[in-house]
Design brief:
Elements lengths: L2 E2 L6 E8 L2 E10 L2 E9 L1 E9 L2 E6 L5 E7 L3 E8 L4 E3 L3 E2 L1
Antiparallel strand pairs: 1-2, 2-3, 3-4, 4-7, 5-6, 5-8, 8-9, 8-10
Length: about 100
């Protein structure tokens, strides 16, 4: 499921759910690109952010949060590993 939040055009809220994994994202604009703040439940380890020919891996902290700064505009998707070991990926979204 993908949901966009209301409000300021400089900040977008996105949510994804698949099985036991849920991801809530806040995308904001900055002078150095886009900032992605995430909260993940039901997954462990790292989150991999895939964009046009590049992949960036960031760790989830003990509460399931992550931050990625300086993202260029364009499509991206997230890859996660669920607590039961299955691989989960989000649909593509455009920043």
């Amino acid at each position: 499921m993908l949901v966009r939040g209301p409000g300021d055009s400089d900040v977008r809220m996105l949510s994804f759910e698949h099985g036991t994994v849920a991801v809530d994202l806040q995308v904001s604009e900055s002078s150095s690109g886009r900032e992605l703040l995430g909260l993940v439940t039901g997954a462990v380890g790292d989150v991999e952010v895939e964009q046009a020919g590049r992949r960036t891996t960031v760790p989830l902290d003990e509460a399931g949060r992550f931050v990625l700064q300086g993202l260029p505009a364009g499509p991206l998707r997230l890859h996660l590993r669920a607590e039961d070991g299955t691989s989960v990926e989000t649909s593509w979204v455009t920043l």
